Amino acid sequence: MTGETPIPTSWVGPIRLSGDVVGEQSVPLATYESPLWPSVGRGARVSRLVEDGIRVSVVDERMTRSTLFTAPDAATAVAAARAITARIDELAAVVSARSRHAQLIDIDTEVVGHLLFVRFALRTGDASGHNMVTLAAEGLMAAILANHPELEYGSISGNFCSDKKATAVNGILGRGRSVIAEILIPAAIVEDQLRSTAARIVALNTRKNLVGSTIAGALRSSNAHYANMLLAIYLATGQDAANIVEGSQGITYAEERDGDLLFSCTLPNLIVGTVGNGKDLPVVEDALQRLGCREDREPGANARRLAAIVAATVLCGELSLLAAQTNQGELMQSHLLLERRTEAGA
Amino acid sequence: MTGETPIPTSWVGPIRLSGDVVGEQSVPLATYESPLWPSVGRGARVSRLVEDGIRVSVVDERMTRSTLFTAPDAATAVAAARAITARIDELAAVVSARSRHAQLIDIDTEVVGHLLFVRFALRTGDASGHNMVTLAAEGLMAAILANHPELEYGSISGNFCSDKKATAVNGILGRGRSVIAEILIPAAIVEDQLRSTAARIVALNTRKNLVGSTIAGALRSSNAHYANMLLAIYLATGQDAANIVEGSQGITYAEERDGDLLFSCTLPNLIVGTVGNGKDLPVVEDALQRLGCREDREPGANARRLAAIVAATVLCGELSLLAAQTNQGELMQSHLLLERRTEAGA
Amino acid sequence: MTGETPIPTSWVGPIRLSGDVVGEQSVPLATYESPLWPSVGRGARVSRLVEDGIRVSVVDERMTRSTLFTAPDAATAVAAARAITARIDELAAVVSARSRHAQLIDIDTEVVGHLLFVRFALRTGDASGHNMVTLAAEGLMAAILANHPELEYGSISGNFCSDKKATAVNGILGRGRSVIAEILIPAAIVEDQLRSTAARIVALNTRKNLVGSTIAGALRSSNAHYANMLLAIYLATGQDAANIVEGSQGITYAEERDGDLLFSCTLPNLIVGTVGNGKDLPVVEDALQRLGCREDREPGANARRLAAIVAATVLCGELSLLAAQTNQGELMQSHLLLERRTEAGA
Amino acid sequence: MTGETPIPTSWVGPIRLSGDVVGEQSVPLATYESPLWPSVGRGARVSRLVEDGIRVSVVDERMTRSTLFTAPDAATAVAAARAITARIDELAAVVSARSRHAQLIDIDTEVVGHLLFVRFALRTGDASGHNMVTLAAEGLMAAILANHPELEYGSISGNFCSDKKATAVNGILGRGRSVIAEILIPAAIVEDQLRSTAARIVALNTRKNLVGSTIAGALRSSNAHYANMLLAIYLATGQDAANIVEGSQGITYAEERDGDLLFSCTLPNLIVGTVGNGKDLPVVEDALQRLGCREDREPGANARRLAAIVAATVLCGELSLLAAQTNQGELMQSHLLLERRTEAGA
User: Fold this and answer.
1) Keyword Oxidoreductase: yes or no (chains A, B, C, D) (predicted)?
2) Phi, psi (rounded to 5 degrees) for A314
3) In chain D, which residues have their Cβ closer than 8 Å to the Cβ of A172?
4) Which chains touch A (3 or more CB pairs under 8 A)?
């Protein structure tokens, strides 16, 4: 039996952006958790009250797949690792021959005993690139096995990629788009809109996001709830939303500047695309168009724009929740109020 | 502007279950990634060919919230931690007074310098319990602050909970339902249905899921793609799907037994509910009813049933993908084939 | 061929202590890295200029060993886990029968597929307890296997203990002594002695220890160099210094209080003993006596005193290094200076 | 007061080596834990019974220091990161001008909000390189600040290095020597010498080292007790033994090959040197000479040899302990026996 699961969706904002993406942009959030809408909405309102709004920087982009080979022994695996890395140009040609959009840009190897993990990094244009890297990896494995009869096929994916898993490798070697969103909020706006102060938000961020995450045993992650915003915008824009697992690993950082609040969200692992699986649903297509992510640009530019908007959306929701948590009782009150309002159709 | 994002959904299975849930059960999967349906379907078919099918054990259930207090100094924080832990019965009464369903069952404290983190664990009946623990935590904080004038409010959530984040604390102290799904597959079925052998699946699980995850820097997690199945069934059953972040931390384990395959998925952090936000959408309500999770049972039993079904679904998809990855070229071939079939409306 | 490796050793301090240990205490540091002595010495000097000195709190103490059993299937493993936990009193008697000093205080179980990990926590008096828990675990395994014929021996140690490894479980469930050392330093002393300010040390701690450790992918740890002080005092007091691996997982936390500096080191996993292997070397025995850790006290009190002194020593070195790193060029300059001075015999 | 702490030291072996280091080599182990000697000795005996002995591969070598800068905002930090990376040749010249031995080989940057972490990787010849990279980093920071007036000094070390801390970055980007030691042991030798079988050792390694470490929340590490061997040989050879913290992060891997045992230890982070602090003690100098690590070779070759010997030593101890743990009761029995023997002066 087939059908559809309809997720309630609202457009929130507009958010004011500058830096790598300029302008005001509303964003669609598909979620069962309705308090998310006004929460992101409050952050968006703050962004519009600040001249530059949220400044976004797209730092890097790549998609990865790690293949696994077995060798007769460790020394052979190490020698093969060196040879494969040295042949990157030749292997890049293998990729280009199979795909117009995929482009091999880096190879990282790791040897454990006689196991050889080879992690390929590719540019994948405007696609998130899951299928593109798998297809490329198939061709690369075949080429490598042809050149290295001493190796055997281990797996098309060796978990050193790593897809939809919270790991350290993605942030350190890169996977997906790496984006930083930042805002400098005058003290008066912090007080009026967020009912807090820079000092209190900084203290909370240090105690909760940094120290609290440390004792929880978090991994390369220090934030309050990136996963909520990511899920909602990923669903509304046709993304493979299971990528919120690694996408939600990121760092909220705040400092006080003469009473003003410098607040940033650093998201090293945003897997987003504007073409590919899920993007041809009419609702999704419409959403991507309204987000300005279906324009005729150089390959990758639409997805970069989407990544920047996603990061700004995350910042809006993160800022709003942290501010609320500086005040005893505010979180629950607003949840109850909002859910009541939402149920009443507001 | 509001509306709906319709996620394509198919019912897959039935899966044969035994242990804490007995019978055959189809499951709904809402996803943009259509290859997931036949992949889980293959695992379900295997389960029906085995007499006991997939045996599920629900090991534990609880929902948590960690509050944060500040003390003037560490010694005061330590003393308060001891006093609060000792007063658990009194604090349990505070919770019971505010809610019929919530029940305080445990308190864990951790002190860092003069910061005091207090992690409350509650039974929350058939609800996943996000709001219930926040409401309870508010009452608990008020009660604690009234008794401890030396403490100050820090935050209603101190990230030691931890919600929608990949951490170590959830698996070790518990959060959500902890479930193990296991199946013993005769060698002939492994060969016919999964085109592999027990020995090859065991080797792949060790090399990829255990060693590969280790070098990736994974955290208390060793599996191929739990996140995919979790997202799909969470969306189709109205769950807060951002909880796949911690839900997907789990361990696939396989051993060979005289040529047969003993294969298990251990999922310590499944956050699921059968009542609450998102559960009153008609499609979701219908799904929960068909899953047998809206029966008139003792509080928690419907959610336990759902958790068990979710774990069995994860096992079906995990088994199928690992088997495919033991064969060079099979993964891409089946992806391409399935996507073509799906696009053709099959 | 046997002999001795003589590690250069200096007594540093005295450190002024209050809280669970009161008085002034010099400490022995055995190290090849001579700059450590003046660095800890500077911290000690600061402690003597503050009325309360360093306030130490010993929060918890226990030693652990996790045994591993195998069951025919997961359901059997889960049932056994429950039965074993329920029999803690009976198992405690097994431990007491084998040892005067060991006392079973807690059992934690974790089941992965059909593997059953049982983690025993014991009081071990003044011994660090490595051998005591192994001996106890042997008796406990025998008792459990006698009662559970459905289980088989897996391993006397299942790495869920975990000994001499950086893991999350030790901090969360406890292993060794958990100690917090804290000091409140007036602004003038920060300036005069540490050539810095509270604000600058707080900023550095947040940026380097908290954010820097997060991006490095640290695990439940946020400090500059606990390992250095731990190694030196462990060697000088006859400890099993390989325990610095988990011992060095800890959190430095700093806040500004009206210009003064509130600075703390939280060390959840200090494995120390005042009796046992290595403690009967004359130099070690002399060191333990001078530290006041060979007194006639209730079991565990001498080791608790040692743990508190160790934590205070860590604080002295951590404070001094962080202060130095707030100033460009100071670290290298002092290293060069000190090594020259040391070489000159100062 | 100054003096010496004499650590009991025995020479164990010889170990038979092949691959990057060829021959038989005894090793010095300084430890308070005397059972370590016969344990490593048993592994050494096994190595001599196998024709190739232990095959060692040195995969990589580098030392790192991560500096920290602050920028006015994230966009500026990102721009500076790109500019600094692009200027690697110019910065390499800065390093060469300050040191004959240090050579800059790589730069990795990471930006969090407006914080810029710059991680420098250097060749440091036969020195472990702690001081060399600090000295180089000072020069590099000065050069960068001169070129980038928009940046400010943050810290000479930003914890993204990372020194004497268990993190993910060291294994992934490299720090110290990366070494693999491997041995293929015929079934008969496994049985006679280790009283076990390949199948049982493989099963134990998977269950304990891989699964057990996973549930413990270990980080890029899966072994039984690397820290013990590392500490003992580090102390005896004048190393900065606090580096066992990251050094002990490594992976033991075992497979059965037609009844024989293929067993390896992969150690990505061995920080060792044959010159520098601690190396001029007569006992240490003598040890390094006997290890063949004071020969007149190209820079780095002596330290590489030492790293290979260290890894082989780790393998001997790891193999012996794992074999013992496959047998119920053996560990304690041998501990008791050995300690009695040792106490009796054997």
Assistant:
1) yes
2) -60, -45
3) 168-169, 172-173
4) B, C, D
- In chain B, which residues have their Cβ closer than 8 Å to the Cβ of C217? 217
Respond yes or no: is residue A240 known to be catalytic. Answer: yes
Cβ atoms < 10 Å from Cβ of D90: 12
Which of B169, B78, B84, B146 is CA-nearest to residue B115? B78
CB contact under 8 A, C218 and D328: no
Alpha helices (runs of H) in chain A, residue ranges in sequence order: 36-49, 74-86, 88-98, 130-147, 169-173, 187-194, 198-204, 213-216, 226-236, 244-247, 282-290, 301-325, 330-343
CATH match of C9-60+176-343 with 3.40.1010.10: no
Cβ-based burial of A89 (10 A; exposed 0-12, middle 13-18, buried ≥19): exposed
Which among D141, D117, B50, B118 is positioned nearest to C330, based on CA atoms?
D141
CA distance A114 to chain B (A): 10
Mean pLDDT value of segment D266-277: 96
ipTM confidence score? 0.96
How far, in Å, CA of B195 to CA of B319, rounded?
12
C1/D11 CB distance under 8 A: yes
CA pair distance C251, C253, nearest whole angstrom: 6
Bridge pairing between strands C260-270 and B23-30: unpaired
Q: Residues of B287-325 as b/e, b for ≥16 C-beta within 10 angstroms?
A: bbeebebbeeeeebbbbbbbbbbbbbbbbbbbbbbbbbb
Quick one: tokens of D246?
Answer: 């990251």
Report CB contact under 8 Å: C167, D277.
Answer: no
Tell me the nearest-neighbour CA distance from C51 into chain D, angstroms. Answer: 25
Residues of chain B with CATH 3.90.770.10: 9-60+177-343
C166-182: average pLDDT: 97
Terminal C-alpha separation, chain B:
34
Pairwise CA distance, residues C97 & C135, whole Å: 11
**CA dist., res. C241 & res. C206, Å (int):** 29
In the 8-state DSSP scheme, what is residue B99?
Answer: -
- pLDDT higher than threshold 90 for residue A161: yes
Q: What is the mean pLDDT of chain B?
A: 95
Strands (E), C113-221: 115-123, 152-155, 176-185
Fold for the domain defined by A9-60+177-343 = 3.90.770
What are the DSSP calls for B216-252, one per residue? HT-SS-B-S-HHHHHHHHHHHTT--GGGHHHHT--EE
In DSSP terms, which residues pair with B63 in a beta bridge?
B122
- B66 touching C (Cβ < 8 Å): no
* Nearest Cα to Cα of residue B256 among B320, B186, B179: B186
Q: Where in chain D is the domain with CATH 3.30.70.420?
A: 62-155
Q: What is the pLDDT of residues C27-39, one digit of tens each?
A: 999 999 999 999 9
Q: Phi/psi of residue A61, each to 5°?
A: -155, 135
* Dist. CA A74–CA D180, nearest whole Å: 7
Structure tokens at C165: 């490894």
CB neighbours of C301 closer than 8 A, spacing ≥ 6? C126, C295
- pLDDT per position as a tens digit, D297-345: 999 999 999 999 999 999 999 999 999 999 998 876 766 665 554 444 3
Class of domain D9-60+175-343 (CATH, top level):
alpha beta
Q: Which fold has domain B62-155?
A: Alpha-Beta Plaits (3.30.70)
Distance CA B324, CA B333 (A): 10
User: Which residue type, as a one-letter code, is found at position B307?
Assistant: A
According to DSSP, the residues that pair with D235 across neighbouring strands are: none
Beta-ladder partners of A275: A127
pTM for the full model?
0.96
Nearest CA in chain A to D119: A172
- HSE of A239, CA atoms in CB hemisphere, 13 A: 30
- Whether C210 sits inside 8 A of A210 (CB atoms) is yes
